[in-house]
Amino acid sequence: MIQTMEKDPFIKNFVISTGVHAVLFVLAFGVGKFISGSSVDQGKIEVITSSVRVDVVGMPKFTVEELKAMQSQVQEKAQVEAKGAPEEVKPTVDEAEDVIKKDDIVIQEKSNDAPKKPSFMNIVSDYSAKKVKAAPKKKGSTQGSNKSLDSLVLEGNKLSKGGALVGDYSDGEVSEMAEYVQALPELVRVHFKLPSYLMDQNLRCRIAVYIGNTGEVLKTQLIESSGNPEYDARAEKSIRAAAPFPKPSSTLSPRLGGSGVILRFPL
Amino acid sequence: MKILFLILLSLFSFHSFGQDSIAEIAVGHAELDKDKFVIDDAEASGLSGAQKTLLASFLDILKNDFSFYKHKFNIVDYSKKGQNSFSKPQLESWKEHGISYFVTSKVTSNSDGINADIKVWSILTGKEILAKSYAISKNSLRPSTHKVADEIYRSITGKPSVFLSKIVFISDRGTFGKDSIKELYMMDFDGNRVDRLTHFNSIVLSPSVSPDNSKIMFSLIASHRQVSNGKVKTIKNIDLKLFDLGTKKFSTLSELPGVNSGAIYSAGGDHAFMTLTHKGNADIYEMNLQTGARRSVTKHWSDDVDPSITQDGKLMTFLSNRSGRAHIYTMDPSIAEKDLKRISFVGQFNATPRFSPDGREIVFSSWVDGLFDLYRISSDGSNLARLTKNFGSNEEPVYSPDGEFIVFTSKRVISQKKATQDVYIMNRDGEILGQLTSGFGRCYSPVWTNLSK
Description:
A: Fusion Protein Consisting Of Minor Coat Protein, Glycine Rich Linker, Tola, And A His Tag, Chain: A, Domain 2, B: mainly beta, Neuraminidase, 6-stranded mixed beta sheet, 32 strands, globular
């Protein structure tokens, strides 16, 4: 090889040039990582937003206070079902043959791999059946303020499913990854709490969370700090408090553990 | 060649490492983690019986003030009797209880009442954030205590509270039916210490407080003597009046024929926006309060009433029936009809839109199922939300100057001939905090004074 290179200056120069470029590339990559302090490739971030159907057909039926109560019910149920979902038991081939016979007409339904969460419309319907108590006349309630109600108010007061679709994904386009990621804010937000002096400061941060095979948090990484250590710490704490997340499928697991998911606090 | 191969392989490896995109999603706004707050028993020595009663009232009022902010603070009742909490507060033990702030006091006797040394500790930082002495007398008990509460609130949040704010309102107290008269009153934010401001024996309407809290504009159904064909007759007109709280003097700002009403102050206090009907239909005008010069802000054949303006003066909301029904609109008030936008599209009859102090939200009442209820909507027309239900007929909502509360009137029909209408307070999410007036006639049009700097 050395003899060949000595004989052919083109090969020698090609190897040197390639080597120099490779070193420069590695240096640039390393320095870039060092400067940004992050291993996350910003150019490959895919921002996901939830799809929401919006129709306002009349004055809202439910008050903000009623929606708060409903929201906490939804969150509690979602938490319980996400954490307490039983292990999926796959039928054996023999069992499957017993269920579906050769001449049966089979109507394929949507996959139920992911733990089924109570739909907001069902919760609203259940709640509608109950008699709503009159608002208290005197002090005594302990409900707190909740800015996240704005989005819920939009959802909670619609009675029809809606005709206009707002968001990045239509029903048919929701990828498995997007579906999994869209479920995370609901689980984390319930644990994201700030003291009054941090509420009005318009702080924001971004944290990458790496999720393991069983939904556990492998690690978190602060991608963009708010500048306030307590805000960042409370955001990170809310992620850990929400864990374990739903168990990802075997196809999602490598991506969630390898590249992670970035959570933006608050928007 | 091996070296070349390895180098090329390593380059391709870098490419494939970052091939999958990274998903990013917003979590949403945080919930408020209420600060646990202890107002400890005072260290008192050498107090007479009357002074002990004064001290007990002082602490009760202090705790009651903070209970209005219960969406921010959780007043915890931990008794630490027997410990020297004023000189050597046990910060670590409070930390174990999850307490964020600790108020302690040392009270001594003075000739007019008591002297209270107040200290506020931030348990999280271990720092004393307020240390001040206050003289409390029987006569100054409520205003002095509200001042103490306000300074404690400021030391914790860095912002002024509503504790020193007052509420101006109208009541027909003591009058009934056709003979009823409505006069102007003013009370503390918590409904105490009510003062009567006017004695016109007439109907007072729609008050507005100047930004420096020195004046109140209001409308009055006034009688004017008019000579027509040699005959003198008396006509009624809705005039715009001004009351100077310092000098206690009244003056007339506008008495154009018809309605001169619904006036509000501009942010600087040198102009007013009001509804005038002297040209036939109701339109909104801006008037220079020094010169009386006015210009049209709305110009439409339909009626435009009830203006409310943001603190920066760049956005005005008002009510108009230009769509056929009473709906809420916004516009830039600097030029007539500029950037007009309708923001409400539902509701049989919407009324009294009022901006939040930050200008982001508008609270209003809307006629639904035979009653008025309160709603709020973002200034761009999104996020319509209901605030009241099953709570009588609720009208005339207005945000507190810090944006944390809304006062409004609520009517209860007792019988065909009798109904009560009182002023209530709730937080911005519609949690009713209490009734501010009771047995004080039918109350109307509450408005807040502004925050003291």
